[in-house]
Design brief:
Number of helices: 18
Number of strands: 8
Pfam families: SusD-like_3 (PF14322), SusD_RagB (PF07980)
Organism: Salinimicrobium gaetbulicola
Helix content: 40-55%
Strand content: 5-15%
Order of helices and strands: HHHHEHHHEEHHHEHHEHEHHHHEEH
Shape: globular
Largest sheet: 2 strands, antiparallel
Protein name: RagB/SusD family nutrient uptake outer membrane protein
Family: Belongs to the SusD family.
Low-confidence stretches: 1-32
Radius of gyration: 21 Å
Subcellular location: Cell outer membrane
């Protein structure tokens, strides 16, 4: 039976109006319960604050959380698409309705702070942060360790979610790790209102503190379903954080090794990677969302933008496809090449018709959406483990072979690789394995790569675009500049 999470009455009261700028910084909005009221109730009944936490998980998939009615405004998975397209690995190969074309694939939003897509990303992640602060404050604040074990688990998840949101803000609004650069405002409790940009090092200090605390608080936590964050998901988040910094590869190696060896996850088999990526119970999935009819998702969803077998834009005329240059680098005997429709000159060329699909496989058929969302897979940890091992002179071949042995018949070619050639192979395999899952943009920045768009893109074909190009990073939005007196147009 599918595990459901829904906004409870209390969670809805707390979260339905959380926004950004002056809207979400009202200290004690009268239509909400106060933190003191929640805290008092939670001391006796953890279900009170658990409902608020479930509300945050619900916000992660809810439409309109970026503050618009746009059909690309549907929570975290929406911004996974932004990242995949900015990285160049996901091509908008046919555009009939125009979603993603000008602002994302033609880079207009990253070059113009008045464009709505800057605001959507900003508003969504700060909304999640504000909501996480509600839970953390209700349980005693940043330094508290709740007395009840259930509340410790809730605190751990809230801190991990807050860290996750700050990390993605850093990804989308900065070019690379620069400790002294003033980048974003930081809000770590409900008393924080409008604030100035702070050094990146300060934001990373909060992210790392949150995740280390979460790992401790979630030790031994047997989550009810994979929608919840457990210790191993928090460890994976922290591994990504250290990887982006680029100077703590031993920690990345240790964290990913623990997830691989002790997390209880199994790599997806060659059959499973052709099985639709539509079921949260898949053993290789670490974190995701079990979607049901109660979630009321349809056209405005990740599936509604990517899957041709859903009532979707992908079916109706906005095709999302693997970059043709990346596709050409997949060996013919690699099972992952079968995930994509081979080139024939037709509409469906290089769409992920055998990677992401509703099990009924009726073109344009699924409505409403009940196929699940994947946020994180254990395959990511094998690839990141290999990447870290290559940086610190450890065995990077074994984790890479373990993964690729499920994808290609002969992995012995890896034995001849070392140095930069090995690093390049790990990066390539990361792009292939995780295509369409929102990780290509992270890998591009972490590896300081260069985008070269293939022939099936609609713009900038063949142009080399480095990871730190202005066009790949969003601008602090106009709304924040207007309503936050500490950030102005002269210092956006």
């Amino acid at each position: 039976m599918k595990n459901l999470f829904k906004l409870t009455g209390i969670a809805a009261l707390l979260l339905m109006g959380v926004g950004c700028s002056e809207e979400f910084l009202e200290e004690k909005p009268t239509e909400f319960l106060t933190t003191d009221q929640i805290a008092e109730a939670a001391e006796k009944n953890p279900d009170v604050v658990a409902g608020t936490l479930n509300g945050i998980y619900a916000l992660m998939i809810e439409t309109g959380t970026g503050g618009t009615t746009n059909h690309d405004d549907f929570g975290h998975k929406g911004y996974d698409i932004y990242g995949d397209m900015l990285s160049g690995d996901m091509a908008l190969s046919v555009s009939t309705y125009g979603w993603y074309r000008s602002d994302i694939t033609e880079f207009q939003a990253p070059q113009d702070f008045t464009r709505t897509r800057n605001y959507m990303v900003w508003r969504y992640y700060y909304r999640i942060i504000r909501s996480a602060n509600t839970v953390i404050d209700a349980l005693g604040g940043n330094d508290a360790i709740p007395e009840l074990e259930e509340n410790q688990r809730i605190m751990g998840q809230a801190k991990a979610i807050r860290a996750h949101s700050y990390f993605y803000l850093i990804q989308y609004f900065t070019k690379e790790y620069a400790p002294d650069a003033l980048v974003l405002p930081i809000y770590d409790d409900l008393q924080d209102q409008n604030g100035p940009k702070v050094p990146m090092s300060e934001i990373f200090a909060l992210i790392e503190s949150d995740l280390n605390s979460a790992i401790t608080l979630l030790e031994g936590f047997n989550r009810g379903n994979k929608t919840q964050i457990n210790k191993y998901v928090a460890e994976a988040m922290l591994a990504y954080v250290y990887g982006f910094k680029g100077n703590q590869w031993q920690e990345v190696y240790n964290l990913t090794s623990d997830v691989i060896n002790n997390g209880g996850f199994t790599l997806m088999s060659s059959e499973e990677v052709l099985g639709g990526f539509n079921d949260l119970s898949t053993s290789g999935w670490m974190w995701g969302v079990d979607l049901t009819l109660d979630n009321e998702l349809g056209l405005v969803s990740w599936w509604g933008q990517v899957d041709r077998f859903t009532y979707s834009y992908a079916w109706a005329g906005d095709a999302k496809a693997i970059d043709s240059g990346l596709y050409a680098q997949i060996p013919d005997n690699d099972v992952r090449k079968l995930q994509f429709k081979a080139p024939t000159g037709g509409y469906a060329d290089l769409m992920p018709l055998d990677k992401f699909y509703d099990p009924a496989r009726s073109i344009g058929g699924q409505s409403p959406v009940t196929t699940d969302y994947v946020f994180m897979r254990v395959a990511e940890m094998y690839l990141l483990n290999a990447e870290a091992a290559a940086h610190i002179g450890q065995d990077a071949i074994t984790p890479l072979k373990t993964l690729l042995s499920q994808r290609i018949p002969d992995v012995t070619y890896l034995d001849a690789l070392s140095g930069q050639a090995l690093m390049d192979e790990i990066y390539l395999q990361t792009r292939i394995e995780l295509w369409g899952e929102g990780k290509s943009y992270l890998a591009l920045k972490r590896n300081k790569g260069t985008v070269v768009r293939g022939a099936n893109h609609l713009s900038f074909v063949g142009e080399s675009i480095p990871y730190n190009d202005e066009r790949l990073t969003f601008e602090i939005p106009e709304a924040e500049i207007l309503y936050n007196p500490f950030i102005d147009s002269q210092n956006p």
